[in-house]
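Need residues for this backbone.
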């Protein structure tokens, strides 16, 4: 499930993932928020939190995630990934150069720091 993280600046989209994330989660929560944010702001910053109760992505969710980034490659100013999952942290460090905008990885304990950084 994906939920919106409230109380962020208008140019920052924040999402928290828990349980198993599906393509439907992207289609009903994340994609509409991205489209609305782009229409209003033009450029966006993203905070994506995968907490302790996150249980993984379904295959369709992985494709939906890639599509969001590929459809709007120049829209992202900053991306903060917050997770304690080692393989996601490593993959983001390795492939972060290919991601649009500035990318930083934070631990779950650093969520307040991630919110501050992405909004600066």
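Answer:
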């Amino acid at each position: 499930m994906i939920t919106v993280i409230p109380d962020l600046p208008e140019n920052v989209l924040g999402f928290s993932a828990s349980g198993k994330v599906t393509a439907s989660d992207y289609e009903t929560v994340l994609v509409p928020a991205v489209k609305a944010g782009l229409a209003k702001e033009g450029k966006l910053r993203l905070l994506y939190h995968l907490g302790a109760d996150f249980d993984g992505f379904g295959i369709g969710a992985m494709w939906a995630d890639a599509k969001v980034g590929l459809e709007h490659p120049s829209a992202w100013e900053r991306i903060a990934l917050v997770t304690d999952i080692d393989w996601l942290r490593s993959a983001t460090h390795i492939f972060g150069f290919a991601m649009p905008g500035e990318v930083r990885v934070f631990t779950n304990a650093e969520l307040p720091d991630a919110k501050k950084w992405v909004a600066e």
